[in-house]
Amino acid sequence: MKAAIFVLSDPKSGGEEALGRVFNALATAYEYKQAGDTTSVTFQGAGTRWVAELSKPEHPLHALFNAVLDTVAGVSCGCSDVFGSHEEAENKGFAIIKDLAIPGTSGVASVRKFVNDGYQVFLF
Fold it and tell me: Are 55 and 49 a contacting pair, CB within 8 Å?
């Protein structure tokens, strides 16, 4: 099996729902990884802000994030530009993804690419 997990929730919303969504995304990635499945995590939209938060050792999901860090494909370029997380993601060494040219952006991560490659796609 192959799983493509997209994190869309916004950590700046300050709500438990956003934390729950990123937890479920990381837990899903962990489950697929542990099963030996091909797993890819992409941070897209406001979700690009999560890489800075999850990289903090004091964050409650830091250990889980580290457990799946090798499955992180990166952050969407255009989204990270729009949501102000581009520089932080780059500084932390995350790949900046520009799969799809979208007018008015520098490019975004493509969901369709994963569908075409036979991945199950999960949006959190």
Answer: no
Residues 6+ positions from 107 with CB-CB distance below 8 Å: 77, 78, 97, 98, 99, 100, 101
The answer to whether the predicted template modeling score (pTM) of the entire model surpasses 0.85 is yes
Fold category of 2-123 in CATH = Hypothetical Protein Ychn; Chain: A, (3.40.1260)
Extract the tokens encoding 103: 């007018």
The domain ranges of the chain are 2-123
How would you classify residue 9: left for phi > 0, otherwise alpha for psi between -120 and 50, otherwise beta? beta
* 50 touches 68 (CB < 8 A): no
Q: Tell me how far apart the alpha carbons of residues 19 and 82 are, in angstroms, rounded to a whole number.
A: 21
Strands 96-97 and 120-123: unpaired
Residue type, 95: A
Name, in order, each residue with C-beta under 8 angstroms of 8's C-beta and a sequence gap of 6 or more: 21, 44, 45, 46, 47, 123, 124
- Over residues 62-120, the pLDDT tens digits come to 999 999 999 999 999 999 999 999 999 999 999 999 999 989 888 999 999 999 999 99
